[in-house]
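Design a sequence for this backbone.
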C-alpha cells in the first residue's frame, strides 16, 4: 500500500470522512477540505488514536534513530489484541489502525 492509499483508508474507514484527493479530506462539518497526513503529522495521528482508543508507549531509550514505539488498544473492541511496533509514534498509530480495520 502506498502512503497515499494508507492515508485515504484511514480517512474513510477510521475517521468516516470523504476523500477529496491530493491529500485533502472533507470532515463533513461544513469546513473547507483540509490536508491531513497522520503518517507525518502527530496531531493528525492523535485523532485516530483518540477515536480508536490507541495508546502509544516508547519501547527503547536513546536517540531518535533507535527509538521504537508500541501501539496498543486501551480497550479491546476487536476480537484480538493488536500490538504494532514502529519507528515513530504516528507510524505505530497508523499501522495499528490499519490492522484493526483490515
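Sequence:
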Amino acid at each position: 500500500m502506498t502512503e497515499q492509499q494508507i492515508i485515504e483508508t484511514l480517512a474513510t474507514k477510521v475517521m468516516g470522512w470523504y476523500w477529496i484527493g491530493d491529500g485533502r479530506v472533507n470532515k463533513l462539518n461544513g469546513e473547507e477540505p483540509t490536508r491531513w497526513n497522520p503518517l507525518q503529522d502527530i496531531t493528525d495521528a492523535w485523532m485516530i488514536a483518540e477515536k480508536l482508543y490507541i495508546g502509544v508507549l516508547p519501547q527503547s531509550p536513546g536517540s531518535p534513530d533507535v527509538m521504537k514505539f508500541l501501539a496498543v488498544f486501551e480497550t479491546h473492541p476487536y476480537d484480538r489484541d493488536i500490538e504494532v511496533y514502529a519507528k515513530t509514534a504516528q507510524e505505530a498509530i497508523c499501522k495499528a489502525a490499519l490492522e484493526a480495520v483490515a
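Helices lie at 3-14, 42-52, 89-101.
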